[in-house]
Design brief:
It is a single chain. The protein is of the alpha+beta class. The chain is built from 4 helices and 14 strands. The strands form 3 sheets. Strands 11-3-4-14-13-12 form a 6-stranded mixed sheet. It has a 6-stranded mixed sheet with strand order 5-9-10-8-7-6. A two-stranded antiparallel sheet has the order 1-2.
């Protein structure tokens, strides 16, 4: 069992070192997953939640952003918050570079970018290949299960709906709105000057 610290409190990720099995451990349905590496950990997202994967674009960093947000990225005219999972889960720092992959996801009708170190690929996992996490074993149930790759490496399945707290999602939406207003004001000023 490995303990990973979250910003808000300590979190036990049972799935990293081995799952404690019991007759009561529920199974979750099988699906296709996008698997990526972040700070030495293999993480997965349901393929249907992933909109695209882009290389790290230029960041806009409004003041007052939470520590786990690196800034806002412009993905074809839409500002998307860039979440640093290494910071959110208090993992060893994983520096970003020009070719860092960013997984663009959608949760509750809003886009969210997750910074990664490397895209491992797409994996189809049968229903019996996913081990569900015990209820309340992970903060805010942001990890729903785990599966093992052919090489024996454990992959943690993230829940986008539970990755951030409601208040954090609302704050990010406000930052994006403020940045959009700032950009619109700058564009209007440029038009006046021309």
């Amino acid at each position: 069992m490995r303990t990973v610290s979250c910003q808000r409190e300590r979190v036990e990720l049972i799935g990293v070192g081995g799952v404690e099995e019991s007759a009561e451990t529920p199974r979750v349905a099988g699906e296709s997953y996008v698997v990526f590496r972040q700070a030495g950990n293999l993480l997965a997202l349901e393929r249907r939640r992933v909109r695209e994967i882009v290389f790290l674009p230029e960041l806009s960093t409004p003041p007052g952003m939470p520590r786990f947000i690196d800034g806002l990225i412009d993905v074809r005219g839409t500002l998307v918050p860039l979440v640093r999972l290494d910071r959110l889960f208090d993992l060893p720092p994983a520096p970003l570079h020009l070719y860092s992959p960013v997984v663009i996801c959608e949760v509750d009708g809003r886009r969210l970018g997750l910074a990664g170190d490397q895209i491992v690929g797409l994996r189809d996992v049968p229903a019996d290949g996913i081990e569900a996490m015990a209820a309340h074993s992970v903060f805010n149930e942001c990890v729903t299960g785990r599966f093992v790759l052919g090489e024996g490496e454990a992959v943690l399945v993230l829940s986008l709906a539970n990755l951030l707290l409601d208040a954090e999602r609302e704050a990010l939406a406000e930052f994006a709105e403020m940045e959009n207003a700032r950009r619109d004001g700058a564009a209007a000023a440029d038009e006046v000057l021309c």
